[in-house]
Amino acid sequence: MLKLRDEQLTLWDTILPEEIRKLPAELAIIDELLDDESFLQPFMEKHPTKTKMGRPTYPIEKYLRLMVLKRKYNLGYESLIKEVGDSITWRLFCRIAIDEPMPDPSTLIYARKRYGDEVVEQLNEALLHKLKEKAVLKHRKLRTDTTVVESDIHHPTDATLLQDGVKVITHLVRKIRQVASHAAQGFEDRTAEIKEKILSIAKVLRRRSRESWEEVDRITESVIEVTEAVVEQANAVVAKIRETGKRMAQQSKGRLQTAITLTGQLIRQAKQVVSGTRVIPDRIVSFFDPEARPIKKGKLAKGTEFGYKVRIDETESGFITGYAVYNGNPADDELLIPAVKAHIETFGVAPTAVATDRGFSSKKNESAVTALGVKRASLPRKGKKGQARTEHENQPWFKDLQRYRAAGEARISLLKRKYGLGRSRYRGLVGSKSWVGFGILTHNLDRAAKMLAKAAK
């Protein structure tokens, strides 16, 4: 049963003095914005049961406010519960009574997975419409750019990826041994052997010679052989588990089969690399986040980043009005038209001006955005430019829009530093979409609070 809020007042609501119950100015504005019914509607549409039967969910208004505080102050789930529990101000903001027990961190984790990334997108849309009603959001100019949100993974090598697979398989077999000991008979724990080989690779690489790389390939081949043996034994474990066995054994069996399949892909990938094939399409870079991809953005500090590409759309008011998370590394010039169309869908009208860097530019894109209703498109052309094009790009309005575009780099830097878009703590493409969505929602709430507080003075 979906529970939206706690309607009943507590004794503390009448006892606490007004000075204590008063929220700080900006937090009070965020509280007022989130109090709108439009923020509850996405949850009502998403929840599978709309009846009053079954166990009630954790109240939505409390969950939403807790998630906003989590991203606003970069807290983990356990730290969030502890800090909110110890603060009267934060309890009041989250609508959690002083004598009410705090939820378990797992309650928020399960809720976030259950509601998914689509609800977060709808929350962002609801906030944009709310800000438009309050006349603080302008949407005449649009700038769009891309960045990479990295996955929370270690730097991938073929040997360490195989090590991760062996570790997970061994862990799952240990769990199966507790409920179906007969199935795990004959399985050998070889994690220590793999670890020793990984450490030997680090010692070899210190020599920095051609012979050292050849030796690394030989060590990797031995890691592949050990991993293949572990996978073979794990398949034998799966075969011994009866279909009508204990529920826990069946759950572990399903997870073990998934781990075996993924480890098999990593083995084939490692064999290709050892044989000399260094460029592999859709290469897996993490056992724990198989959807993450290597992405090159031309940065000197980070030649290759591992994660997901993110498109960020911003208007002249400083609000993020659109975003998209992509699997892989699609070309920037393929993302401009979707950005303009998303803007039109959100606000019902095309932006007057669009500014991007040259990565988004093409003659086709310039014609397409003009056809969509954009009057001025500041898209610097790639390559050598003729005299007519040079004169076009030297016009004052074109240069002004390029200066406006350059300021978008600062916004992306802020999102990475303060709102967590540098690294996603949630796994998978769906998890990264939720992570990015909550970060942008919190950023827009913070900016709205500052602008509305300034206007009220």
UniProtKB/TrEMBL annotation:
Pfam families linked: DDE_Tnp_1 (PF01609), DUF772 (PF05598)
GO function terms (MF aspect): DNA binding; transposase activity
Domain Transposase InsH N-terminal per the UniProt entry, residue ranges: 25-114
BP GO terms, sorted: DNA transposition
Domain Transposase IS4-like, residue spans: 314-445
Name this protein carries in UniProt: Transposase family protein
Originating organism: Thermobacillus composti (strain DSM 18247 / JCM 13945 / KWC4)
